[in-house]
Amino acid sequence: MSPKIKSFLIYGVSFTALFLISRFIVSQFMEQGMMTMFIPIAVAMIISPKPHIEETENGREYGLKSIFLKKPFKF
To answer: What are the φ/ψ torsions at residue 52 (nearest 5 degrees)?
Structure first.
């Protein structure tokens, strides 16, 4: 599997997991409505690691960049 596909696959899985966890938590404290959908989407978008592409002499390097790490995690 190429690093590009691997980085986007990990991003998708982490976004989905964070969305489902935050949706479960929000649904425990709020009634069903529009906000129970928008709050988990916002939380998952902020916390999940984003795909990061870096141009180098050897070509492109793919990785994931998180708000919790200074340097991107490379494949």
So the answer is: -130, 125
CA distance 19 to 73: 21
Strands in the chain per DSSP E: 50-56, 59-65, 73-74
Query: pTM to 2 decimals?
Result: 0.81
Please state, in angstroms and rounded to a whole number, the distance separating the CA atoms of residues 28 and 18: 16
Instruction: Give the Cα separation of 20 and 17 in Å (integer).
Output: 5
pLDDT at 22: 94
Mean pLDDT of the chain: 88
1: helix, coil or strand?
Answer: coil
